[in-house]
Amino acid sequence: MKTSVLLGLAALVPALLFANVLQGFRFEQQERAIATLQREQRELFEENKRAITGIAMLRSPTRLREIAIEDLELERITPERILTIELPGGRHNGDGAQFR
Predict the structure, then answer these.
(1) Which of 72, 48, 68 is CA-nearest to residue 60?
(2) Angstrom distance (rounded) from CA 55 to CA 85
(3) Using alpha carbons only, what angle is made at residue 15 by residues 14 and 20, rounded to the nearest 5 degrees?
């Protein structure tokens, strides 16, 4: 009985050592995966910041004014050129329906 317990402990020590090494290996793999994901997250965050900056530049009033004047050949209207139409009894949308 004593020898079987000693043999069991002798077999258990290498098994536990192997399990410890395996766990350390898996831990290292997870750390590498986390580092890769963090690096990818930083890159995507920076790319997103650049995209937001680009959108802000494209939406700037100065750029839109230049496009309106140069490309679309639009011109500013003066208040005298604005015509206001008042409909009696509410607003109509053209198909007979009335808004209230």
Answers:
(1) 68
(2) 37
(3) 95
Contact by Cβ (8 Å): 89, 98: yes
The H or E element spanning position 92 is: strand 91-92
Q: Taking residues 84-88, report their average pLDDT.
A: 83
Residue 85 has which token pair?
A: 């139409």
Cα(36)–Cα(24) distance, rounded to whole angstroms? Answer: 18
Note the pLDDT tens digit of each residue in 66-80. Answer: 888 888 988 888 888
Provide the token pair at 5.
């317990």
When computed from its CA atoms, the radius of gyration of the chain, rounded to whole angstroms, is 37
Residue 89, φ and ψ in degrees, nearest 5: 75, 15
